[in-house]
Design goal:
Keywords: Oxidoreductase
CATH superfamily: NAD(P)-binding Rossmann-like Domain
Number of strands: 10
Protein name: NAD-dependent epimerase/dehydratase family protein
Pfam families: Epimerase (PF01370)
Largest sheet: 7 strands, parallel
Helix content: 25-40%
Distance between the termini: 37 Å
Radius of gyration: 19 Å
Order of helices and strands: EHEHEHEHEHEEHEHEEHHHHH
Number of helices: 12
CATH architecture: 3-Layer(aba) Sandwich
Family: Belongs to the NAD(P)-dependent epimerase/dehydratase family. Dihydroflavonol-4-reductase subfamily.
Structural class: alpha/beta
């Protein structure tokens, strides 16, 4: 298939492009600056160079979207803002480009006669809503809500973008699949690690005397990429959501793995009291987004992707270790 892959310079999208090409597909990757295309090409399988091309697109502008989708068989839309500071003064600086960019991608698919769309959503679009009444783990049936205490700008951006995608797909007859990964760890392709590995970079900096009492749903980038490719190649996945969660890890556990890989960096693995984190967050925007989830440890299930997509998850410890080793190699 020929696939329009948006945001090809991203941490996840680079891996998806690589795996699509390795599987024999053609990739038309979108980026905001065409000058970055050759750096991406250098990371791809050499024998597949003739099956990779680039187009310039912007999430906030209509220019070029319809033309980019012409002649393709499917659209994989990964491009979306993923800021370090998830509580900006104006939440719309995150929400608007996420929602409007998703709508542009789907409108372009419709205009080009492309029915198959894979959307990269997030676990945050699932886990920040009412608790399931039967005490089951959260799963693909659950949705985050705008009035939830944890619904910061990033949560709202992913939730509203996915909601908009499902509404458009139903109205226009598109065959949509959404992939909702947890915190994506694992090794980056190239030297741009992306925002999700910023946690590893911060731990490696050794600047924090303690770590916050926060738990993350972890998944390896290689598994997330595989899920996109399998979903694309499996027509029966149309109309379905898939959570990608290999397991949960506390920040301190992540720090211990990183510290073992970099024993001379003075990395702390002690967990800070919640009150202290709340106080520090008043001065540190990077911590502010963690305040609503301090101590939260609700179960969430990635079993559907294991069963229906055949994802044999890389263990969370291994995903974090691979990320740490890559970041150390990049001199994070």
């Amino acid at each position: 298939m020929k696939v329009l892959l948006t945001g090809i310079t991203g941490f996840l999208a680079r891996r998806i492009a690589h795996d699509l090409l390795a599987a024999g597909h053609h990739v038309r990757g979108s980026l905001r600056d065409r000058g970055k295309g050759e750096a991406v090409r250098a990371l791809m399988p050499e024998a597949a160079a003739h099956r990779l091309e680039f187009v310039e697109l912007d999430l906030t502008k209509d220019d070029g979207w319809n033309e980019a989708a012409q002649g393709t068989d499917a659209v994989i839309h990964t491009a979306s803002p993923f800021p370090i500071m998830q509580t900006p003064a104006d939440p719309q600086t995150i929400i608007r480009p996420a929602v409007e960019g998703t709508e542009r991608a789907l409108r372009a698919a419709k205009a080009a006669g492309v029915a198959r769309v894979i959307l990269t959503s997030s676990v945050v679009a699932v886990e920040n809503g009412p608790r399931p009444e039967d005490d089951r783990p959260r799963d693909e049936r659950d949705w985050s809500s705008a009035d939830h205490p944890n619904a910061n700008a990033y949560v709202r951006s992913k939730t509203e973008a996915e909601r908009a995608a499902w509404a458009f797909a139903e109205a226009e007859g598109l065959l949509l699949t959404t992939i909702c990964p947890g915190l994506v760890m694992g090794p980056p392709l190239g030297d741009e690690a992306g925002t999700s590995l910023g946690i590893i970079a911060r731990i490696l900096s050794g600047k924090d005397p303690m770590v916050p009492p926060v738990a993350f749903e972890i998944v390896d980038v290689r598994d997330v990429s595989r899920a996109h490719v399998v979903a694309l190649e499996t027509p029966a996945t149309a109309g379905r959501r898939f959570l990608l969660v290999a397991g949960k890890m506390w920040f301190a556990d992540i720090a211990r793995i990183v510290a073992a890989e970099a024993p001379h960096r003075g990395i702390s693995t002690r967990t800070a009291p919640r009150l202290l984190v709340r106080a520090l967050a008043m001065m540190d925007p990077a911590l502010r987004g963690l305040v609503p989830v301090l101590g939260r440890n609700e179960p969430i299930s990635g079993e559907k992707a294991r069963i229906e997509l055949g994802i044999d998850y890389i263990p969370p410890d291994d995903a974090v270790r691979a990320a740490a080793r890559a970041m150390i190699a990049l001199d994070a």
